[in-house]
Every structure is written in C-alpha cells, then in structure tokens.
C-alpha cells in the first residue's frame, strides 16, 4: 500500500518560512521530497493541502505542487510496474536523479562514455553538436520535458536557416539528441511518455546524399600537376594515394608507417570498423612512396607522411583532434589546386573514395568492391556503390528515347 501527500514541513517552528514537501509512504515506510518552495505557515491551507490565495504567488506554487504530485505518482507507478518490491528509498532516489540530471548532464556522461571506449572521432563530432544545442537553448540547463516536437522543429529551423547547415547535417544533430534521450530513458531519468521521436512525432531519415567523384580525365590532371605550390602538391599526393588504395580514409592514411608496407603489399587495420586486410601496392603509389622516402628517409617505426608530426601515437584523443585539423587544411589546399587545374567539382580528401566508386562503376563485382572498400557488410557496399552504377540505367534510357 502506498500514498503521497503534500504538506508544510514544520519541524523547526521557530523559523518564519517552512518548506513545502511531499510525503511518500509505502509499506509503512515514509520519506519526504522537497519541492523547493518556502512559505509562512499562515499561507498554508492544511485542509485542502494548497497555498492560500492570499499568498502573492499562490497560483504558481499550487501549479508546481500539482506537477510534482503527478511526477511522483508517475515514478511510483513505473517503479511498481517494474518491481512490486521497490522501496520508498528507491523511489525517492529515482526522483532525485530525475530532478538533478537534465539533458546536458546526461550528455556529459554520454561524451565521457565515448572517451572511455576510445571513440574519439565520434566524441569530437558529438561534442560540437551538443554545444550547438546549448547555443540554441541559451542556457546550461535543459529539462528533458522541454524537448518537445515544437522545440525540435524550431531547432531544425535554427540549424537550416540560422546556421546554414545541410539537411543531412541537421539529421545528425537530431540523432545525438535522440541518442541522449534514449540513454536517459534507459537510466529511468525520464519517462518514455515524453519521448518526442517516432511515428507521428519527429522521424529521422537521412536525405539521399549526392556522391560525385572525379572522372578519369580529372584524376589525370591531378597526376600531372607538378607545377603546384609545395603545400598543394602535398595535398594532391595524399589525395592520389588514398584513391590508389580504393579510398583509404584520411585518419588511416596519415597513420601509415613504413613497416605497414611489406612484399609489395600494404597491411593495415581500419580505425572505423577494425577490419584488417592487405592490398597490392599499385605502381602509381610506388612513385609517391619513393618521393617521401627521398624527402624524409625511411624509419620502419616512423610514419610515411609528415603531417601528424612528433606526437605520442598512443594518445588517440590527441591524434583524433590533429587529424580533424589536418583534414581541414588539406581540403582547403585541394580546392585551391582544383581551381588552378580548372576542375569544376567539389574536391576533398573524402572525394577520393567517391572517385574510386565513380570510376569502378559497374566494372567490378560487388563482393570484390566490398573487399576493396573494407566494408563489414556487402549491403553497405551495395548501397554505397548504387550512387555510381549508371550503365544499365543509361542503356535503359537510350532504349526509350533513341527512336
């Protein structure tokens, strides 16, 4: 048997102001939960258990009492539904956590969990997205119940039009909110009744992204660009090296060691999915390796490319931050190189991967592409390569219009 009742706590009668509290009784055990308001005894209606109208803030405090009563009652129902033996202390502890752990507090725990799992790239991205939400809120506190469908739609508008973010980027920002909200539900900090995502609410779906790689002619322009400034030429070398190895990601490329190249093959483990594999060293890649060998010399334990510098390679968090900065600089130099070479397409380090997909097109069996891309699932490869497989669609179009 359980009950809840609001009362004026008059333990110290000599004080002028007394706290309003809610008494929770279950299985003959009692605990008190303060609602954070203090009033004089003369303003308390003990019969109706509410603040008298003569108090200047009577309506607001009485509304707060109703909200807290509903919150506590909901918590008791949830606890008893999950565990009929839940004690009054357990219920109070859940109430205390729910009232102290706001969205940003749970977000801090989530970010720490990414660090603990050494997910540093994800940590950097998610931390930036949480900071953007704090900018929108304009406060360091955000109650989960404030995150409603209208709130999220306003935030979406803020990102799209105020921050000029792409629709795909906006979805990523909303996903981190959903992830943290789900974490709070799992920890019983907030009830699923307030969940703003799902059918009839906010549904998250990535818009189809545009993946456009360079053509063979455009890649040849990069290969022949010996007249570029040294910084731009270095960026082009890294781009081409990535392309020659089926679009190896920049985070893996920058950490390649001379010892990773053995017997005409590259051996390395992808940081994204931890897959270990080896690829033949293409002849064109040998020329780039020879260039950096002559520039820097060969130390089997040293990195092939100089960008990371002399850092502790075991400090993965620092490495992740460095890679982000280096990538921005490389992309800026690649854009300058593209302008010089009259390449009228967006070019970045990641476009090397799209370019491999674009040129491979329909030429290579999907299972072999899965191996070259180092995808864990062939479904991922099919979805990715669908952007570049145009031959059959082009032939079908010609059959209809060429009459």
TrEMBL record:
Residue span, Core-binding (CB) domain: 101-185
Record GO terms (molecular function): DNA binding
Database matches in InterPro entries: Arm-DNA-bind_5, CB, DNA_brk_join_enz, Integrase-like_cat_sf, Integrase_catalytic, Integrase_recombinase_N, SAM-like_dom, Tyrosine_recombinase_XerCD
PROSITE patterns in alphabetical order: CB, TYR_RECOMBINASE
Residue ranges annotated for the Tyr recombinase domain, each copy included: 209-397
Keywords, alphabetical: DNA integration, DNA recombination, DNA-binding
Stored Gene3D superfamilies: 1.10.150.130, Intergrase catalytic core
GO terms, biological process: DNA integration; DNA recombination
TM segment ranges: none
Keyword NAD (UniProt): no
Keyword hit for Zinc: no
Family recorded in the similarity comment: Belongs to the 'phage' integrase family.
Name of the protein in its database record: Site-specific recombinase XerD
């Amino acid at each position: 048997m359980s009950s809840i009742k609001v009362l004026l706590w008059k333990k110290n009668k000599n004080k002028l102001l007394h706290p309003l509290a809610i008494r929770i009784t279950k299985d003959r055990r009692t605990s008190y939960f303060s609602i954070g308001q203090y009033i004089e005894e003369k303003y308390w209606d003990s019969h109706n258990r509410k603040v008298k109208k003569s108090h200047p803030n009577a309506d607001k405090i009485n509304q707060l009492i109703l909200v807290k009563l509903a919150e506590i009652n909901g918590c008791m129902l949830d606890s008893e539904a999950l565990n009929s033996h839940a004690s009054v202390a357990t219920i109070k502890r859940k109430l205390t956590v729910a009232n102290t752990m706001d969205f940003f507090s749970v977000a801090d725990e989530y970010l720490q969990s990414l660090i603990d799992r050494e997910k540093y790239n994800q940590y950097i991205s998610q931390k930036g997205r949480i900071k953007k939400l704090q900018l929108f809120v304009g406060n360091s506190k955000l109650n989960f119940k404030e995150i409603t469908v209208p709130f999220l739609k306003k935030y979406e508008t803020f990102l799209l039009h105020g921050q000029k973010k792409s629709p795909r980027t906006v979805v990523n920002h909303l996903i981190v909110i959903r992830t943290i909200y789900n974490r709070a539900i799992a920890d019983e900090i907030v009830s699923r009744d307030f969940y703003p995502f799902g059918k009839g609410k906010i549904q998250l779906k990535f818009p189809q992204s545009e993946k456009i790689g360079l053509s063979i002619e455009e890649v040849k322009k990069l290969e022949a660009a010996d007249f570029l400034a040294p910084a731009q030429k270095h960026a082009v070398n890294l781009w081409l090296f990535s392309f020659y190895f089926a679009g190896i990601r920049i985070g893996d490329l920058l950490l390649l060691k001379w010892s990773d190249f053995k017997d005409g093959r590259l051996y390395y483990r992808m940081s994204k999915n931890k897959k270990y594999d080896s690829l033949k060293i293409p002849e064109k890649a040998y020329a780039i390796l020879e260039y950096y060998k002559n520039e820097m010399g060969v130390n089997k334990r040293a990195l092939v490319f100089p960008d990371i510098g002399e850092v502790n390679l075991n400090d993965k968090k620092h490495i992740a931050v460095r890679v982000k900065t280096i990538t921005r600089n490389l992309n800026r130099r690649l854009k300058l190189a593209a302008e010089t070479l009259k390449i009228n397409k967006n070019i970045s380090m990641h476009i090397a991967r799209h370019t491999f997909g674009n040129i491979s097109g329909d030429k290579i069996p999907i299972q072999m592409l899965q191996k070259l891309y180092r995808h864990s699932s062939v479904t991922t490869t099919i979805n990715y390569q669908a952007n570049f497989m145009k031959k059959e669609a082009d032939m079908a179009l010609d059959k209809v219009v060429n009459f």
